[in-house]
Amino acid sequence: MGKRSSPELTLTLLLMASLHSEAFRINKWVYYSPRTLTWTEARLYCQKKHTDMVTWGAVDAAWMTDWLNTLEVQNVWIGLARDPENRSAWKWINLKTREGLSGGDVSQSANWASGKKSQLCAAVSDEYQKWYTTQCLNEHGFYCSVTDNISHYGDTLDWYNASKYCQAESGQLATVTQINTGEFQLSGWIGLYQGADETWQWIGDSQSDYRNWVEGEPLNRDCAYLNVVDQKWYSTGCSKKHEVVCYDDKLLVVKENKTWEEALMHCQNIDTKCSDSSGHCIIKHYLLSLELLSDYDYVRERIYTATTDEVWTGLRFLGGEWLWVDGQKLQDQGKLPDCPPQQKHCGTLSKHDTNNWIIRDCSERRNFICYGAKEMVET
Question: How do residues 126-139 score in pLDDT, each as one tens digit?
């Protein structure tokens, strides 16, 4: 299957293996789009169309990269960026608040590519005679410095080959000082590049600290993309453009206060079309039935934005048993009373740190969480 055959392609992933053959499981869908966006644009796109950008905690990375390989995808943005408050740290996007970064520092992860050449180099703009950053593998003209003479070459080479060309002429890519800026009237590479420690430095032994960046430059390597072929992370400027992968869990937090019965009906009245279908699939919604304890933490993060401390789930006491709305029995019945008070027959989940179900009066009003399940329809 060619990677351009659809505007958006989908992979369904299982978040966790089920402990019980019939227990509800939270599935993840990964969506690939061939459109090229900046990192910020990619995140906004994912949040608008799906849940968010992919992170290694939200999806199975091995499955995803294998799938992208079959689509012949090379580089895609992932939800990983440098911490603006600690420049030495790299963190995943915050899926809880959907803003900023969170979690531990992954700057030392083995997933990073190592020993790679600098990816950002500096060139002169012929329009402003100012400097700007661009990928070192792009091709431009260049400036060589031989002894005290600086010459412009119109041959288009990448930064590395331009450097080799200059060396073959017994020189090097030009170092720029305030004294010789007038010699740079045309666009082309200069001998400035971003080193492994993220600082900009001149080629060779030059100690010049002169800079002549255009406004908004230099670009910082503050965002990460995944190279699907070697399955490694690479840092690059956030304004660069790459293709997009998003994920979706089909969970919907409804920030309306309703009774349990009203919440149940609200979820069931939501029908949406499958974004990857041709009219043969819809997504039906239900109050969330959550059986696996391994899913608690993830769901709690998803209900963080609710306006009530607890949200209704699909747990209800009927016929002397605690049941989910999908008909399954609550596996751990021992954590809830066998004979609850008359009114406390409905279950909630707190967005705070507790793994216990909380039983409430079904007539109370609060936010709730629905989940979507794909169903095939006849056309």
Answer: 766 789 888 888 89
